């Protein structure tokens, strides 16, 4: 099957929300009056971002989910996406599964595939996603101010827990492993929460590389610092919150530097706590207040006595050999 | 050097035309009132779309040029782009050269880099480009009508000539080779022509896979056919137009199925010939009228007596082993 047949069979669907979709030189988008278009792009490479053995349905889901998570972090409503695929061979069962997982998530968010490119080559997936946000209301990394609270959505570190189980560095009961594996392979982008936080949160970021590293971007862009108690870790990791016993330092590492969480970390003025909780309720997404923004730059991790301690967590970096992602 | 340092050093530049660029979860674009956003994406993989030995400046140019060519084919004015890079290693000289070639072309078209992603992996480049076009005025593949003329811009087949010289299947004088190599490595997207053809052309496409295959997309989308004389080939190939002697069938193959031309093929009513020539003059881009659109579907290639003849030109397909692009 050639490139054009492949596109037509698996990836060409009529558009409803956008003026022109797959099949011409360009797609056409038209944001509603007063809206800005939020754009993000993510490149996933086999062996770095996913295991070669992953279910193609889950891979299709995840490839779009990690992009939708960026829209969520800006408070943008999904609108459309493009898909570029490099494939070592044309494997119809794989393509059918990939398309199924991709479109299932796309349909949940009314996010239409409007264009793309396919080529032979080592397996790689690039999605560029487009969302709408009212002009001037996008959540940015730069808006955190001293006195703000720091919040996170959902639970953190379970994706990393699953990866460590795959590697054999931790042994998990089957049920715990399956739940953690779903967190790794089927992340749920927090789109509803991101949109509900417009006008409430002062800054936001999605957690792809680990809380410490990603929150660090917010702190640098905002010119502020934060303190977070390490003791929060066991309650933020779903598996330990549910009773799993794990070495405390590993739990801290998974929660603060695990990667692949695709939750939101955000800041909001202390005066808006009720508004944050209302947004979380309206989105059906749990949130936890984990610390506060301070004027002194840098991220401080606090021990049980409230003393800042040194941990060698590094923000995840796809160029370094990383325990979190170099999973091939 | 890690991912974030790399982005900051080579790819983070302030935006002027767009509300928000590199450095947050999303970029923000805001098309002017009444404008639609044209979007296209191209994935280039080493060994398929470019030789591993290519000058990184030329590769940076070409990676953006092939995307701008899609905007040109829609009559859209460039606005912004995102860049995803998978790199086997961090080679600063290569990155500096790539960025130089990329931004030189971007600056010509006032097209701003607004976001991207970088990762380790086999060398691959994905650019998604954004342009503005007045709502309802985009040039589409579907607008050709019987009686329209068929036109092409510039010259065709010289990129393929250079590729064949690299392969040793043709021997060229040094000057001819260098000129052809520039066509292969430094394609010039026909942005000014595409914009000037708004309201004049009835359909358009950019020529990436060869005239016969790409014009075939226009014919199918428009439900029409066309006849083109094979005898046009020597005058459309710059090298033979300038006096190079080549086997006639090879010239036909290079011109009709060469690939990598990044010229525009377009149709326009016969009544608009003067308007087409005015658009070409205003854009500073030569155009040639090469045939006519007919009601009977399919592309007919005509011999010197006006008889349709069979040629085994295939539209280029990045999944098949193709002489035009499988250049590793």
From TrEMBL, chains A, B:
<dbReference type="InterPro" id="IPR006283">
    <property type="entry name" value="ThiL-like"/>
</dbReference>
<dbReference type="GO" id="GO:0009030">
    <property type="term" value="F:thiamine-phosphate kinase activity"/>
</dbReference>
<feature type="binding site">
    <location>
        <position position="208"/>
    </location>
    <ligand>
        <name>ATP</name>
    </ligand>
</feature>
<feature type="binding site">
    <location>
        <position position="40"/>
    </location>
    <ligand>
        <name>Mg(2+) 4</name>
    </ligand>
</feature>
<feature type="domain" description="PurM-like N-terminal">
    <location>
        <begin position="23"/>
        <end position="133"/>
    </location>
</feature>
<comment type="function">
    <text>Catalyzes the ATP-dependent phosphorylation of thiamine-monophosphate (TMP) to form thiamine-pyrophosphate (TPP), the active form of vitamin B1.</text>
</comment>
<feature type="binding site">
    <location>
        <begin position="116"/>
        <end position="117"/>
    </location>
    <ligand>
        <name>ATP</name>
    </ligand>
</feature>
<dbReference type="InterPro" id="IPR016188">
    <property type="entry name" value="PurM-like_N"/>
</dbReference>
<feature type="binding site">
    <location>
        <position position="25"/>
    </location>
    <ligand>
        <name>Mg(2+) 3</name>
    </ligand>
</feature>
<feature type="binding site">
    <location>
        <position position="41"/>
    </location>
    <ligand>
        <name>Mg(2+) 1</name>
    </ligand>
</feature>
<keyword id="KW-0460">Magnesium</keyword>
<dbReference type="GO" id="GO:0000287">
    <property type="term" value="F:magnesium ion binding"/>
</dbReference>
<keyword id="KW-0784">Thiamine biosynthesis</keyword>
<protein>
    <recommendedName>
        <fullName>Thiamine-monophosphate kinase</fullName>
        <ecNumber>2.7.4.16</ecNumber>
    </recommendedName>
</protein>
<feature type="binding site">
    <location>
        <position position="316"/>
    </location>
    <ligand>
        <name>substrate</name>
    </ligand>
</feature>
<feature type="binding site">
    <location>
        <position position="42"/>
    </location>
    <ligand>
        <name>Mg(2+) 2</name>
    </ligand>
</feature>
<feature type="binding site">
    <location>
        <position position="209"/>
    </location>
    <ligand>
        <name>Mg(2+) 5</name>
    </ligand>
</feature>
<feature type="binding site">
    <location>
        <position position="70"/>
    </location>
    <ligand>
        <name>Mg(2+) 4</name>
    </ligand>
</feature>
<keyword id="KW-0479">Metal-binding</keyword>
<feature type="domain" description="PurM-like C-terminal">
    <location>
        <begin position="146"/>
        <end position="301"/>
    </location>
</feature>
<dbReference type="GO" id="GO:0009228">
    <property type="term" value="P:thiamine biosynthetic process"/>
</dbReference>
<feature type="binding site">
    <location>
        <position position="70"/>
    </location>
    <ligand>
        <name>Mg(2+) 3</name>
    </ligand>
</feature>
<dbReference type="GO" id="GO:0009229">
    <property type="term" value="P:thiamine diphosphate biosynthetic process"/>
</dbReference>
<dbReference type="GO" id="GO:0005524">
    <property type="term" value="F:ATP binding"/>
</dbReference>
<keyword id="KW-0547">Nucleotide-binding</keyword>
<feature type="binding site">
    <location>
        <position position="49"/>
    </location>
    <ligand>
        <name>substrate</name>
    </ligand>
</feature>
<comment type="similarity">
    <text>Belongs to the thiamine-monophosphate kinase family.</text>
</comment>
<dbReference type="InterPro" id="IPR036676">
    <property type="entry name" value="PurM-like_C_sf"/>
</dbReference>
<dbReference type="InterPro" id="IPR036921">
    <property type="entry name" value="PurM-like_N_sf"/>
</dbReference>
<feature type="binding site">
    <location>
        <position position="206"/>
    </location>
    <ligand>
        <name>Mg(2+) 3</name>
    </ligand>
</feature>
<keyword id="KW-0418">Kinase</keyword>
<feature type="binding site">
    <location>
        <position position="70"/>
    </location>
    <ligand>
        <name>Mg(2+) 2</name>
    </ligand>
</feature>
<keyword id="KW-0808">Transferase</keyword>
<dbReference type="Pfam" id="PF02769">
    <property type="entry name" value="AIRS_C"/>
</dbReference>
<feature type="binding site">
    <location>
        <position position="42"/>
    </location>
    <ligand>
        <name>Mg(2+) 1</name>
    </ligand>
</feature>
<feature type="binding site">
    <location>
        <position position="25"/>
    </location>
    <ligand>
        <name>Mg(2+) 4</name>
    </ligand>
</feature>
<dbReference type="Pfam" id="PF00586">
    <property type="entry name" value="AIRS"/>
</dbReference>
<comment type="pathway">
    <text>Cofactor biosynthesis; thiamine diphosphate biosynthesis; thiamine diphosphate from thiamine phosphate: step 1/1.</text>
</comment>
<keyword id="KW-0067">ATP-binding</keyword>
<dbReference type="InterPro" id="IPR010918">
    <property type="entry name" value="PurM-like_C_dom"/>
</dbReference>
<feature type="binding site">
    <location>
        <position position="117"/>
    </location>
    <ligand>
        <name>Mg(2+) 1</name>
    </ligand>
</feature>
<feature type="binding site">
    <location>
        <position position="141"/>
    </location>
    <ligand>
        <name>ATP</name>
    </ligand>
</feature>
């Amino acid at each position: 099957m050639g490139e054009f047949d492949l596109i037509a069979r698996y990836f060409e669907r009529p558009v409803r929300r956008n003026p022109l979709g797959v099949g011409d030189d360009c797609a056409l988008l038209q944001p509603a009056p007063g809206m800005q278009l939020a754009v993000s792009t993510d490149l996933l490479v086999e062996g770095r971002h996913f295991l070669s053995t992953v279910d193609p349905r889950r891979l299709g889901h995840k490839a779009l989910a990690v992009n939708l998570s960026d829209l969520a972090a800006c408070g943008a409503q999904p609108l459309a996406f493009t898909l570029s695929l490099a494939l070592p061979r044309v494997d119809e069962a794989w393509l059918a599964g990939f398309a199924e997982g991709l479109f299932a998530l796309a349909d949940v968010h009314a996010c239409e595939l409007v264009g793309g490119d396919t080529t032979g080559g080592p397996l790689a997936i690039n999605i560029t996603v487009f969302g709408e946000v009212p002009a001037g209301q996008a959540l940015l990394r730069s808006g955190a101010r001293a006195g703000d609270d720091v919040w996170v959505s959902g639970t953190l570190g379970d994706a990393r827990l699953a990866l460590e189980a795959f590697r054999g560095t931790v042994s998990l009961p089957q049920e715990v492993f399956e739940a953690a594996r779903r967190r790794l392979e089927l992340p749920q982008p927090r789109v509803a929460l991101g949109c509900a936080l417009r006008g409430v949160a002062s800054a936001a970021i999605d957690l792809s590389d680990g809380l410490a590293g990603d929150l660090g971007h917010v702190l640098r862009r905002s010119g502020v610092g934060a303190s977070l108690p390490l003791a929060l870790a066991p309650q933020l990791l779903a598996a330990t919150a549910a009773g799993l016993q794990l070495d405390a330092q590993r739990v801290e590492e998974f929660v603060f530097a695990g990667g692949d969480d695709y939750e939101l970390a955000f800041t909001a003025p202390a005066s808006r706590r009720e508004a944050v909780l209302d947004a979380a309720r309206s989105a059906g997404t749990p949130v936890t207040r984990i610390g506060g923004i301070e004027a002194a730059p840098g991220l401080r991790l606090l021990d049980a006595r409230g003393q800042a301690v040194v941990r060698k967590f590094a923000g995840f970096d796809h160029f370094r050999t990383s325990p979190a992602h170099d999973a091939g």
